[in-house]
Amino acid sequence: MSLNTEVQTLLAQLGVTPEAGPLPTRTPISGESLGSIAEHTAAEAEAAIQSAHRAFRDWRNVPAPLRGELVRLLGEELRANKAALGRLVSIEVGKVVSEGLGEVQEMIDICDFAVGLSRQLYGYTIASERPSHRMMETWHPIGVIGVISAFNFPVAVWSWNTALALVCGNAVVWKPSEKASLSALAAHALLERALKRFADAGHHAPDGLSSLLIGGRALGEALVDSPKVALVSATGSTRMGREVGPKVAARFGRSLLELGGNNTAIVTPSADLDLTLRGVAFAAMGTAGQRCTTLRRLFLHDSIYDAFLPRLKSAYSSVKVGNPLETGVLIGPLIDDGALVGMEKALDDARAAGGTVHGGAAVTGLGGAYAHPALVEMPAQVGPVVHETFAPILYVMRYKDFDDVLEKHNEVPQGLSSSIFTNDLREAEAFLSARGSDCGIANVNIGPSGAEIGGAFGGEKETGGGRESGSDAWKAYMRRATNTINYGTTLPLAQGVSFDI
Ligand code: UN1
């Protein structure tokens, strides 16, 4: 069966019949076309925003636990369709099978989390300085949430935002990557099914509560520019975030930015090297280096460098690159030829900066943009090492002094994820302390990628500062009102001010 035939079967199974149109879709596995589909116009984007705004005005009045019921139904649909959606993701963006399934599992997990959250949108009660007064805070929905997502997690990132946004009482308009339109159509169809079941059970779900915009950049711009979009949650490159952030700020909207990472592992003299090898291999080569959390900088202590590097090299040369749907393959294709060109350029730049490149050769003849993962021994943190290249390149550097490596670690402009491999309590705790990693995610004896949904996800500096998913990330999707209630018969003023009339 051709991949196109399989995709059409999966789409039918998932209840999607894409309308034909000018937007080409393809699989990076073979380069084969998956059909050309209809795009939304800018006018349709505007209409979706308006209708989402109307929907929000209703949805905000639905009790949060009942809003949670809708997300619970979405979780059920995802559970029932995990295999089909996971497979579609694998084919459309080239992930190995278990990672396609893992992506859908991440969606299920956030739905479960959001259902619980729907009964836990807690505000504080605050001691008032005035007699017979009570203070508290209340969290309210904010409006339309615009979600702009990237190709590499084509459906999970939408679900992190949408599951939270919906229980928080907001409406959602989603602009996915045009490299992953089919997965987006399928994921959204599952939400539509959940909405139908919700309505069939007698609950009110307003029209336009969630919509999907298929197409290019102009649609994302509509979300960024519309004063009706209260929060723009955008995942992508730092370059994209540099455009989105200021535009949204100029209209005093909120943005939640998940941008580039340049993630690390520091391997110290006491590290368990077997565990480190597995942690480093998954984090650096998994998803063909196309996670924002992918391990890109590896600092090896001088005392273990010569023992560890050959083991890593042999893991790199034995890993199977190829069709990600085949058993045993761990590295699928890059998303497109442009990504391969970017990888080759970074390797050239690394050589020019004094690096020694192991691996990294393109694999031809498969129809897609395949490459062997590259390990690059660098004399210093220079050249391409300080940039994010969305490809499986791991820069390896030697260090001697722990304090010095902490400085080096934080020297780059990005601040997403980081890790240390050590059995030394002092090093581990120092890495997690204020003088340690400056990233939004800092791990011990686990690589930087593969975060669970229970924690807040995101990073600092050029990574954009946003937090999605677990912990109290929901607060970004709500507004806080501070309430002071006077249940006495006098009117004492705060700070002892008197104003007698
Ligand atoms: C991304 O690459 O945009 O932590 C998200 C991870 C995944 C999410 C990655 N849970 O690697």
UniProtKB/TrEMBL annotation:
<dbReference type="InterPro" id="IPR015590">
    <property type="entry name" value="Aldehyde_DH_dom"/>
</dbReference>
<dbReference type="InterPro" id="IPR029510">
    <property type="entry name" value="Ald_DH_CS_GLU"/>
</dbReference>
<dbReference type="InterPro" id="IPR016162">
    <property type="entry name" value="Ald_DH_N"/>
</dbReference>
<feature type="domain" description="Aldehyde dehydrogenase">
    <location>
        <begin position="22"/>
        <end position="480"/>
    </location>
</feature>
<dbReference type="InterPro" id="IPR044638">
    <property type="entry name" value="ALDH7A1-like"/>
</dbReference>
<dbReference type="InterPro" id="IPR016161">
    <property type="entry name" value="Ald_DH/histidinol_DH"/>
</dbReference>
<keyword id="KW-0520">NAD</keyword>
<keyword id="KW-0560">Oxidoreductase</keyword>
<comment type="similarity">
    <text>Belongs to the aldehyde dehydrogenase family.</text>
</comment>
<dbReference type="InterPro" id="IPR016163">
    <property type="entry name" value="Ald_DH_C"/>
</dbReference>
<dbReference type="Pfam" id="PF00171">
    <property type="entry name" value="Aldedh"/>
</dbReference>
<feature type="active site">
    <location>
        <position position="258"/>
    </location>
</feature>
<protein>
    <recommendedName>
        <fullName>aldehyde dehydrogenase (NAD(+))</fullName>
        <ecNumber>1.2.1.3</ecNumber>
    </recommendedName>
</protein>
<comment type="subunit">
    <text>Homotetramer.</text>
</comment>
<dbReference type="GO" id="GO:0004029">
    <property type="term" value="F:aldehyde dehydrogenase (NAD+) activity"/>
</dbReference>
